[in-house]
Every structure is written in structure tokens, then in C-alpha cells.
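Typical record was shown:
=====
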Amino acid sequence: MTRVNDHAYAQRDIAITAVAGRFPGAPSPQAFWRSLLDGRELIRDYPAHRLSGGVPFSPVAGACYVPRGAFLDDTDAFDYGFFHITPREAVRMDPQQRIFLEVCHEALESGGYGRGSDAGIASVFAGTRKSGWEPYLPAAADATDAMLALGGNSPDALASRTAYKLNCTGPAVSVATFCSGSLVSVHLACQSLLAGESDLAIAGGACVRFPAHQGYFCHRGGILSATGRVRAFDQTADGTLFSDSVAAVLMRRLEDAQAAGEPILAVIKGSAVNNDGARRAGYSAPAVDGQAAVIQRAWDRAGLAPDRVGMIEAHGTGTSIGDAIELSSLLRVFALAQPRACALGSLKTNLGHADCASGITGLIKTILAVQQGIIPPTLYCSRPMNALTAPHTPFYLPHAARRWETAGSPRLAGVSSFGIGGTNAHVVVAQPPPYAADNTGHESVHLIPLSARSPEALRQITENLRAYLLAHPGTFADDVAYTLQRGRYPLPVRRIVLARDVPGMLYGLTQERGVAVACDGLIDEQRLAMATAWQQGGEADWSRFYALERRRRLPLPTYPFVRSRLGNDMDEPAA
């Protein structure tokens, strides 16, 4: 792995400390990343039984029907009890709100924080859209049902409901800029952190489409693909297709994340947002000048020369006009880069177009690429656009996953997202700085608190933690204890393990006891009393253990939601 100098990072840098999401065919970022490295297409043909009743009526004469799509599974399942939401309210919530709430909670816990976080002022910024779910709402029996449906289906509520349920007291802003909404949200989160109005920010987006299991109609002159396949930057490209995605990232000022010992997956060096204005062919048409300007501004804010870029995650919709305009803007900004030094990627070749969530999904791909040092392939580009075959083009299309090595400087990438209406966003992403491992472990009895809403969930938490510890043998016991004490909200069903080291933890986690003592020798009576009181429902002042010591927050397994199906038939509108 490339080693980088810590001096490559600046005071205005923003750390990405966690990612979370649900994607078609991939229920987690880890599964999503494996699919990208394998070059898998996540767009599926619809099964025959879904089409047995015929296809929907096309409003456009001469349109052809394409039975393909990329959709989330189990969108009617939700752990409403975990968030103290009644079934009556949950069944009237747009699935975009339900899933985004779970994803944001996963991001918080993966970054080492829970509800009621001790990070300071937490904020939520979310790209939003109408899902088309309103016809599936159950009929309102009274005014209360009507009010629940109003709040549960307004795109405006996506960020504020999340802030309410996760106790985020900073700005809660839902962003509606069409396709660029979630990457604009990332930019706004950066600005909020840099201005000091937030100490921690969740940024993301949610796109879940209804009807859930139908294809689409395409017609001559439209943007949708007749072949059901996205071929970004290829001469044979015939359009895009739409998909689902719900994703979020956790963001902190870099210096704060480092001081708190938090996991850092990547660093945002700069970001920018603009609009194309009036100098374009029409309201929905893109413009070279606007796109080039926002990219250049982001790199200027990063204080970096664009010729250092190693990867661009493009908007790349697979439309011939849109891709040609985007490629022209990229060539204008990155003209001085070395020939074929920069990989050009488009997640839409794997996934399709996730509308307002496409930017955050592409950002997560890029975060994992700069962290892991691997560039995933771009699919279905057999005849690249002419500008990509010129001798001195700075770009190449990666046809297979490849190692990404640099000569001692951080890996650098850019992510673009452009919205209908001309609102453009670009973010500059860098490899994370090296972690200064000054923790050698401390020989004392550590308290490992685990809690859940049900015995079933507590058993799953226990199993997941054991699996994590076995997979990460270099983990320090005190970091595990610190993360679980400070980074998890206490729930009613509890158990606690007392151990001096990770082998002791592993043994204690196998014991069917509320308070499992898994260490030899004398145990501080105060610690044992504290553990017993906490396990029985009391509160604990964990800070007494760490007043003078630095600890790391680990990306431990997050809460295993116990979801219930809410009964909505997502294939048929309500009667």
C-alpha cells in the first residue's frame, strides 16, 4: 500500500469516517464494493411472473418496453419499533424515509457514534425526490392518518425526520436539485463543518422507485436505453435507465476526527456547486462551461493541480449528448494530466441512474477506491468515444480492476454529479492519512456493554462482534470497550462482559450470562458493581475510564435491525 506523508493534509480538510447504504443486489457497502471489483452488472431482467399480467400503458406512441431495472429488495420491511415509530405511522411513511433512517443510523454507529452523540452538534443533509409511492398509501381513516401521510411522504421531511430520530441538533436540510441532490448535500455538509455550525454531519440521498417491479418505455429522442444497458462514453451508447439506491456518509473535520481516534476512510480536499445559467440549449440541457467551472473550482479550493488526478467518477449517464458534453468539460480541466494517467469511471454502467442518490453512490465507490488502492472496472465500453482514443488524452477506461499506486503522494480522485436544471457538483477525494498507532493496549479489566431491543437482536449483536474480533486479530480490547461504551445508545435488553484482552472477550461472549466475567485474578469491586448496575438497566459514567488516555473508535458491526413487513403491496396501488 502507498505510504503518504501527513503533511499532504490541510486544516480545511474533511474526513469521511463511515459509509452506509443499500444498493440493488448489495445490502451493504462491502457487498457493493465486491460487486464493483468483480465487474458485476446490478441491473436485472424482471422475472416472467412479474410480467404475466401484461405491461403498463405507454403514454408515447411507438415506444418500446424494456423489462429491466435495478431495484432494492424488501422495501416494505422496517424496524419501526427501534425508532419508536408506531405501525400506524410506519405504514404511512415513504419507504425512502424508512430506509434512509436505518442507513443513517448505520453510518453513525459505523463511525463510532450513537444517538445522543458526544461529537457535538450533528447535522443531516439529504438529496431527496418524490418516489411515486403515494398511490400505495392505505386510505386515511381520520385526520390523524392524513397528517401522518403528509409528513411521511413529503420529500422535505427526509432530513428533518432523520435529525429528529437520531437527535441531530444542527442543520437538517433536504436538497432537491434532481440528479445532483446527494452530492450537493455533501458540499453543504462540508460548508457547515468548516463554518463551525456542525461538528459532525450525515450527508446522503434516497431514491426508491415505485412501481417497484416494472420496466420502462423508451422512445426515439428520449434518454432511456432501448437495450437496457448503460454504455457510458461509448460510441454505441443508447441511453440510461433508472435505479434505486439509499446511501449516506459520516463527515467530520479532519483534525477533530484524528484527535478523537476515529476511523478515516477518505478525505474531502475540496468541493463546489454551481449552475449552468442561461447559456445552454434548454432548461434540461447540460453545458460544457458550467461543468468545467464547477470542477475547476473544486480543485482550486482543494489547493491541488488537476493534473494530479488518478480517477474521475463521472456523471456518465450513457446518453450520447450528455457524455460528449461531460467529456469536453473534463478535457478542458484535466488537459495537463499525463497521457492515460486518469481512470474514467461511471457507476451507472453497473447500476443505472439512481437519480438524487447517484452522486452519493458514486462518492462511496470513490471513497473505497482511494482507501483500498484499487480502481474498479467501467463496464460495456467496447468502442470508446473518439476523444478517448486520441494519443494524448489524459483518460483511460479501466476494463478490469487494477491496483492504484502513487509515488508517496495521496491517491486523488474527483466525483461529479450534474442535475437536470443545471445544478452541478464536484468533490475532490483523497486517500486517508496514516493512522498514528500510539495505543499499545492497557492491562486492565475492560467492560464490554452490549444492548438491544430484544433477546434475538442481542444474540445477533453478540455473534457479529465475535465474528469481527476473529476477523481482526490485531484489535485492542480497550478500543472495543471504548467504542461500545461511547458509541452505542443503551437499549433495554443488556449483557456485559468483563475481560482483560480480546481472547477473554471472545470467551466471555460465548457465556450465557447477563454479567460474564472472563478474566483471572482480582477484579475491582467498583467495576463489577458498575457492570452489574448497568446490565440491570442503570446508567454508567464511562468517561472515568478514559480521562487521560487516547482511544480509537472502531468500525464495529452496527445494530442488526429486526424488520417487520408492513403489509403494503408494492406492486399494486392501494384500492
